[in-house]
Design goal:
The structure is a homodimer.
Chain A: E1 5-9, E2 25-28, H1 40-44, E3 47-55, E4 58-59, H2 62-75, H3 83-94, E5 101-109, E6 119-126, H4 131-136, E7 138-144, H5 151-154, H6 168-179, E8 184-188, E9 201-206, E10 209-213, H7 223-234, E11 238-242, H8 247-251, E12 254-259, E13 263-270, E14 273-274, H9 279-290
Parallel strand pairs in A: 7-8, 7-13, 10-11
Antiparallel strand pairs in A: 1-2, 1-6, 3-4, 3-5, 5-6, 9-10, 9-12, 12-13, 13-14
Chain lengths: 294, 294
């Protein structure tokens, strides 16, 4: 992936008295050294992020991503991001996008160790070609996340629900899935409930009803899932958040992993058990997801 | 903390045919930009690290740390670090240490996203003054790690036992401890067994017997704990690895959190319940830990 554009944000320069943040945004060469070895993002995965899909230069669901960034900041005791400053940064970065699909990443780090302020930056890169996953589907394996479904409520320091930079386990889960001949994973609780993919939300269809796990159950509340629920409701389908036992995955009429960049990827097999793919319906979801969304 | 010295290692240049790695080690300004925004360490906490105590220029237990780095690399599917290259890097960095206590950090990252090789660097900084923790002790709280004691065996993708850069939860646990008026935390399993501190190992004394949790129970095998076990055995004490129920923490005659830089910090209270401190005995442990160790 060639990084196309990057800028550094100065969060310390943000205050409500200003409306123009241009001078707090500094374009950098995305391939050049930009961060010091003292960065806590790199030393301890101590920060938060968002990945925003960009279609023909339009950042999709920008405000939903910014709200989740602010939510993650609260869970991690980071200073609240100044959302207008981030909006202007995203607009500047999106201007550099080529036609087609790109991805914008927002990163808010706790900063340089013992430093006074967070560091923050925004990058742009072309999106990988996800046609195959969207059309032919993905094979997934279920992987135990090690925690029971009560953990998020009793242990907020586990940061379940925050999109932190500490993604080593998420990456290891995808490697484990590939080792098993699959494409991706679905995390489940130790007491047998569906959680999420390492970088996606789970969406299940039962007849004309679409369900996803409760966001309070220790998962990220997916921006793409929320957007799809709105779209499905408009098309007359029922949608619901539910506690989903693992068996629901194979009992569903169809299942998807949905995320901001790969969009809706139909699941063709779960733990080697085949699942039907509705190619036409999936294409309709992805047409919606590729249309400009705010 | 002022970073005193840093160098970048080129892991791609390491092979068994060479004995001198000087030209694969590049000194950098530790305060200057050195890492690109594409670094997976910073984007996903995707890498591993070690913190080595340095006393009067001598890196303590260097080989134990390098062996653990190699162990973490295996668990994370990272290329094996070339240990002689790292030894020469540590020696070069240690030469820049002032008298007294310092800390050397080793970082091995998966590299720049979609790049061909890992990135790696070593830093040196003066250690914080830990006199108060060593002499007066620390107050700790127990915090649920969310996982039961069977998780490490059944879910290796959770990387329990690897010292990854994904430390956001460890940092959040220390913040939670401070919010409760304590200094540090002890993680426990959801089924009630003692694990470790967020950046330390737990050591308990029962009479003339010293025990620590089983390293297979989802914790890091502490280099300082191993070194102290050798020392205690030489002094005629018994040492053992055991499954320790949470109640053992308050039943112990004394307890410590031990780590490479703070060394042996006696625990003066666990969840507001006072624990006796043996100042003289603790001082003897720290004298040993401050003596040159290989």
């Amino acid at each position: 992936m060639a990084w196309r554009y990057a800028l550094v944000i100065d969060p310390a320069a943000a205050d409500d008295a200003r409306t123009d943040f241009a001078d707090t945004l500094t374009e950098i060469d995305p391939a050049a050294p930009a961060l010091s070895v003292g960065e806590l993002s790199t030393q301890r995965g101590d920060g938060i992020f968002e990945s925003i899909g960009v279609v023909d230069g339009h950042p999709q669901e920008m405000n939903a991503h910014l709200e989740r960034l602010a939510h993650s900041a609260r869970l991690c005791d980071l200073p609240a991001p100044h959302l207008e400053q981030w909006r202007q940064a995203i607009a500047q970065v999106a201007d550099a996008a080529e036609p087609g699909e790109s991805v914008i990443k927002l990163i808010l780090s706790r900063g340089v160790e013992h430093g006074p302020t967070p560091t923050a930056w925004v990058t742009l890169a072309p999106a990988p070609d996800n046609t195959r996953a969207r059309e032919r589907g993905i094979r997934v394996v279920t992987l135990d996340r090690g925690m029971d479904s009560g953990a998020p409520a009793r242990a907020p320091w586990l940061l379940l629900g925050a999109k932190t930079l500490s993604y080593a386990v998420n990456m290891a889960a995808i490697r484990e899935a590939k080792r098993r001949g699959a494409d991706d994973a679905v995390f489940v609780t130790s007491d047998g409930f569906v959680l999420e993919g390492p970088t996606s939300s789970v969406l299940l269809r039962f007849g004309d009803r679409f369900v996803t796990p409760e966001p309070g159950s220790g998962i990220l509340h997916g921006t793409t899932q929320v957007s799809l629920f709105d779209h499905l409701a408009e098309r007359g389908f029922a949608t619901a958040y539910e506690e989903l036992p693992v068996a629901a995955l194979t009992e569903a009429d169809a299942a998807w992993l949905v995320s901001s960049v790969r969009l809706a990827a139909p699941i063709s097999a779960i733990d080697d058990r085949g699942l039907p793919i509705d190619a036409e319906f999936t294409a309709s979801l992805n047409r919606y997801l590729l249309s400009p969304r705010d």
